[in-house]
Amino acid sequence: MCGIVGLHLREASLYPQLGSLLTGMLGQMCDRGPDSAGMAIYGDPRLSPAGESTVSILDAPTPANELAAELSARVGVAVGAVDSAPTVVLHGALAAADLVAAVRAVAPTARIIGSGDSVAVLKGVGDPLELAHRFGLPAASGWQGVAHTRMATESAVTAEGSHPFSVGVDQCLVHNGSFSNHLTIKRELERAGTVFDSDNDTEVGARFVARQLAEGADLEKALRLLGERFDGFYTLLVSTAESFAVVRDPIACKPAAIAETPQWVAMASEYRALSGLPGIDDARIFEPEPEEV
């Protein structure tokens, strides 16, 4: 079943409330996905300090502080680490691609679950609200966040199988539903050189979108191309550093609600996750049409 929530803040005065608002939204979706959860926060100064790139990993081979010290020695600049077990978020004043390369060299068995200039990805197994508090989500700030509660259908209940899938710089995708032809598309992408980290159908969608964006498509076009190629029942929320987009399958089988005010835009699988947002009584609330981006 799964639950999706997302919040994009247009008003800077609300940035300190991002984490608390997102936690409230996530808490309303726990019954839709009790297995595991994940979240992505854009712009939090603790997780992704301004002017620094960020890499989020699972399966760190050494304690977070030791890994940060090894990376600092390798890249020649200070690398910080935030230990949100099982996730470790690393950050430093160098290009994201260079920090990713250093992590791969120093910790080749670690699984990279996100990277960019402003995003931190946190994943874990267990009750979604308990994970949110363990990760410090209520205290997080920033301009945008997405989160997901998972009820596993296509792959095992693991932290790496949790959403969001972040396979492009500052990009995240969360998914409610399932793709029925993802293995066919996965084989096509593999022949084109794409490497996968899991057997999850959502990762196929994420890597398809990331490839379209890398080849010059904008987010709307990338999702329209996904709709042309992927079969199944789904609602997707895809975020970048600037925005997020929502799309549903051709018969809109999976639920979605969007609320918009001059101060923020929010999306959730059900309206109850939006009901606690400030100014919700005056928001424009609507349900996306089938295939509408």
Can you describe what's shown?
The protein has 293 residues and is α+β, with helices and mostly antiparallel strands. It has a domain at 3-38 and 149-286: 4-Layer Sandwich (Glutamine Phosphoribosylpyrophosphate, subunit 1, domain 1). The protein is 26% helix and 29% strand. It contains 7 helices and 14 strands. The strands form 3 sheets. The chain has a 7-stranded antiparallel sheet, with helices on one face. It has a 4-stranded antiparallel sheet with strand order 4-5-3-6, covered by helices on one side. It has a 3-stranded antiparallel sheet with strand order 9-10-11. Strand 4 and strand 5 form a beta hairpin. Helix 2 packs across helix 3 (96-106). The model has no long low-confidence stretch (mean pLDDT 94).
